[in-house]
Amino acid sequence: MTYSTRLHKAILHSAGVYYGGQRMNFNPILQPACSQRVHITLSTHECGGLSERDINLASFIEQVAATLS
Questions:
Q1: What is its EC number (predicted)?
Q2: I need a labelling partner for 50 at 20 to 30 A (CA). Which of 13, 28, 29, 60 fits?
Q3: Cα separation values, 46 from 13, 43, 53, Å
Q4: Would you state the pLDDT for residue 1?
Q5: pTM score, two decimals?
Q6: In angstroms, rounded to a whole number, what is the distance separating the alpha carbons of residues 46 and 64?
């Protein structure tokens, strides 16, 4: 997923994603790019791809993004 937004919103989005991931005992990979984008990579190493936890966190990420739109 890559979100394009203003810098302050990208920072707030990253903080929300990080906080949500920590609450779910999950560590998403956040990569800020071009100061207005955040690329997020989700995968579960144990299953070699996406798990239900990844899908749940992706849903949470979409909710955070929607609040900043």
A1: 4.2.1.96
A2: 13
A3: 27, 9, 12
A4: 58
A5: 0.59
A6: 26
